[in-house]
Amino acid sequence: MTGLDRLLLAQGGVVSRAQALQVGMQAHDVRRLVRRHELAPLLPGVYVDHTGEPSWAQRAWGAVLACSSPQGLAGADLGAALGGASAMRAADGPGRAGDDAGPIQVVVPRSRRVVAPRGVQVTRTFLVLDRVHWNLGPPRMRYDEAALAVALSAVGDLAAVGAVARAVQGRHTTAVRMRQALASRKRAPRRDFLEAVLRDVAEGTCSVLEHAFLTRVERPHGLPRAQRQRRAGTATGIVYRDADYGTRLIELDGRLFHDSAEQRDRDFERDLDAAVEGRDTVRLTWGQVVGRPCSTAVKVSALLERDGWPPGRACGAGCAFLEAA
Q1: CA separation for the pair 322, 325 (Å, rounded)
Q2: What is the pLDDT of residue 257?
């Protein structure tokens, strides 16, 4: 096996011109392989070993190689790596559903200036050496750092919470590690907000809708504090209750993580198991929690009052609690 063959095997069928020359090929050898269609241009100075549509992984390898300096091919601190959503996508693997048509996100050291090829988004950042798994293929930011980068750049607070929730629920990282990553950043436009979100996630709010229920329905309206993600044994196995108020259960049906027929079936089985135990389950949706939080709080409070909990309160002027009084 030649040096070129080993590179193509290790890099998903992608190689840069600089790498080919480093393993002993000549410029005319590369041109010959292109003429024979054994290699096809992918990005400037980067080739793929077929003429068909490149996969997402090959596009990712191409972006990293195209943005790496020749010295960086041998020295990680001068190279490039997948960043942000692309680093998360690479870690999630090929089975992860999502839109693969967007640009590949790459991070490079702050000291370098890179002209981004078409279809590649380059971010210059500090401490790249410490924030990247250089031994992975392709090199990528650590998952906690990548998720944090996505959260910091998200448009809107709920989108930022979504990046955090996805990272933690996918078991790729923990809220504690993400808080440590946040603390290491000098510049963080959502620092206070994300610090609060990560603290809540660490306490058990592991989805966007769960966090919204806590911060928009339960907490501002003085509702009792639920036990979150409480582990329970049922006739069909171990389950984790979203919000447990004793005899009353609140399940947050956000579709963000409950989007298949199988998952819906499991959700209803959970509700049936709870009913067997003598516990009532209420399922809340995005519209109820995010679109009508005050109205939802009034109704949840009425249910909890029947169970002996104290009533909730208005969160401010115009709150539905004032109309219900």
Answers
A1: 5
A2: 44
